[in-house]
Amino acid sequence: MTVRSRKRRSLTRFIAPLMTMMLLGYFGFHAFNGQYGSRAHLAMQIQIVDLQEKLEERTAIREKLEARVALLREGSLEKDMVDQFARQQLNLLREDEIVLMDRQ
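Above: the chain's sequence. Below: its structure in token form.
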């Protein structure tokens, strides 16, 4: 009876660890540089801060405008406010008036 034994190649025992290392390297690279990786997370955090600042500015502007509109609602109409608004929209003034320009 003849017994044949195969000699394991030295290369085959490195295939599984090599494939594992390649797989870990791939996922590690994309965890850092990918679309949802660490770098993208930092960029999104910076963008969130910028957008929150814009939101605060625009909210303040909206609140100012809402306050002005509230003065023009029925029941709280003030003659001075209506007069000022009409003059500003029509670009009219009396001969004895002085105009001070206020930039907003």
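The chain has three helices and no strands.
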